[in-house]
């Protein structure tokens, strides 16, 4: 078979995502704060785009006198109105108090900004280094202490061995152990321990608790205490249940995670994208546009002089103008899509908005996509990292999509509703006789006719962060 070169023409069709379409898809899945950041970045980079000035409210406009009436005011009258001491004239009926007037005249240096009033949260590393610098130690011991502090995890445990610290700092092992012993007595007590047992034993030592039974419970029987195996402990130490309870009360005062209170995790605040209010037996959807600037094309660059330039400048301006128009169009489409999705969710989950989470129905993305005549991927993107404020709290839009569980009458109930019922049952149970997973499944079967397996109850319980019945049981 001979080989040859040949040229062929082939016509095919394929889907190509334009930059504008990619931008619209990207804006759909951005959270509220990410969207604000993206808009502000575009305002900085695109000269054709600017923030529209705030509109004067209709109330202020209605109260303002007409232009013709203002023009009739003489110069002397206008000068009198401008220089009149209205606060003294109004006296006690003034809208501003003397204290407010005084505050307005304060020096600028005395009025600190909001950021200047905030205090930084101390870190575990900084807290320990501060104590280390105040200690009467040598430079070599200080270097060893810094190496130990640098190898602590977020809970305050040492993640390396004393031998590795000695090798890293080129110091004797005995000196490293001495510094480690001193550092473990710093505040918080028990920091730099290598195990929970060592951490608790150090705290007992500092507290002066040298009871041999108490020390033995921490040193040898932490697993038995965790799993509530109390009878073997009573037989071994030949004590009564009241004595064991006294020892356990002391152990519960100890902190097995001394560095947790110095965690670097910051509180994440959620700003809802949509508000759903109940009004006259119906629900009203309000988009949260607070902080989102209204965009417009810059009138400075839209005049005939700026657009009539030639060469690269003209191409640059036209490119930026297209980018600005696509951004405004994409933002409008994003808000419109979000409104339609929330409106569809309110229709499907009306029982939730009226009565709460126990009335949450099964719902999937395809149901909402078919209702608003959009693709499932669009619904999935628009519900990512979006929050809605409802009469029952703030929820992520993904919360309203949950699987179904069959009932005896052929109907279905949402899994989130079952989770809420399980959580309520556990909160109201007798601590000395907690419900087992089988018992919870049986109660759901009897009261709600919900067909649910024990393993499903265990899965839901794990998702809710609820421990098993053996760990929830209170002996004392």
Draw up the topology in text.
Elements: H1 19-28, H2 32-45, E1 49-51, H3 58-63, H4 67-71, H5 75-83, H6 86-90, H7 98-104, H8 124-133, H9 139-150, H10 162-169, H11 173-183, H12 196-207, H13 212-220, H14 222-226, H15 231-237, H16 241-252, E2 274-279, E3 282-287, E4 295-297, H17 304-307, H18 312-348, H19 350-355, H20 365-372, H21 376-382, E5 387-390, E6 393-396, E7 404-406, E8 412-414, H22 415-427, H23 437-448, H24 454-463, H25 469-472
Parallel strand pairs: 2-5
Antiparallel strand pairs: 1-4, 2-3, 5-6, 7-8
Helix pairs in contact: 1-18, 8-9, 9-10, 9-11, 10-11, 18-20, 20-21, 23-24
Question: Which labels suit this protein?
Answer:
25 helices; alpha+beta; 476 residues; 4-stranded mixed beta sheet
Low-confidence stretches: 56-62, 64-78, 89-111
Rounded Rg: 34 Å
Distance between the termini: 91 Å
Q: Overall pLDDT, averaged?
A: 81
Strand percentage: 5-15%
Give the overall shape: extended
Figure out the total of helices: 25
Helix coverage percent: 40-55%
Strand order of the largest sheet: 3-2-5-6
| Helix and strand composition category | alpha+beta
- Main beta sheet, described? 4 strands, mixed
Total number of β-strand segments? 8
Q: Overview of this structure, please?
A:
Helix 23 (437-448) crosses helix 24 (454-463). By secondary structure, this protein is α+β, with helices and mostly antiparallel strands. A hairpin with a 5-residue loop joins strand 7 and strand 8. The strands form 3 sheets. It has a 4-stranded mixed sheet, with helices on one face. The model is unreliable at 56-62, 64-78 and 89-111 (pLDDT under 50). It has helices at residues 19-28, 32-45, 58-63, 67-71, 75-83, 86-90, 98-104, 124-133, 139-150, 162-169, 173-183, 196-207, 212-220, 222-226, 231-237, 241-252, 304-307, 312-348, 350-355, 365-372, 376-382, 415-427, 437-448, 454-463, 469-472, and strands spanning 49-51, 274-279, 282-287, 295-297, 387-390, 393-396, 404-406, 412-414.
